[in-house]
């Protein structure tokens, strides 16, 4: 006789394995040349964060190209995948900002570029969302990841501005202590 708990495991195990296989199937959104560039800039916040901005921008451009490519049959899924790539790269940008900030790196200069890019990303995502809301069924395929991307950028803009303010105030205090 099979116990109920064991039976539940037998039923859920294939579902968990299928989800795991799907998650493992997801490829790294960065290309090998991009990874090499990041490796070369591993210790320097300015060039490394600027690379992430460039890579995130490229993901949005690829997304916009998918939307206008008549050869792509399942645009909803293709847009979903490009949006997820953007989110993954953008999350890496934020993780790197946190890492450099924790190392007490001076990020004031590069944060200005990040905030400028945030504003651009926000506008491009809103334009995509607004055009999707115009009534396309394909938008259902990427509705969740679109919400995730816009929320992520919206939150990050505020976080990046706050961090810039903190770093500027800290630099001012340090300057005053020297005098």
The residue fraction in helices comes out at over 70%
**Structure summary, number of beta strands:** 0
Q: How many helical elements? A: 6
| Overall outline | elongated
Unreliable segments (pLDDT under 50, ≥5 consecutive)? Answer: 8-25
Head-to-tail CA distance between termini: 82 Å
- What about the largest sheet? none
Relative strand content: under 5%
In round numbers, the mean pLDDT is 86
Q: Measured on Cα atoms, how large is the radius of gyration?
A: 21 Å
Order of helices and strands, N to C?
HHHHHH
SSE-based structural type: mainly alpha
Describe the 3D structure:
80% of the residues lie in helices and 0% in strands. With 179 residues, the protein is mainly α. Helix 3 (45-68) packs parallel to helix 5 (108-132), helix 4 (75-102) packs parallel to helix 6 (143-178) and helix 5 (108-132) packs antiparallel against helix 6 (143-178). The model is unreliable at 8-25 (pLDDT under 50).
List keywords for this structure.
elongated; 179 residues; single chain; 6 helices; mainly alpha; 80% helix
Strand and helix layout:
Layout: H1 4-25, H2 32-40, H3 45-68, H4 75-102, H5 108-132, H6 143-178
Helix pairs in contact: 3-4, 3-5, 4-6, 5-6
Describe the structure in brief.
The protein is mainly α.
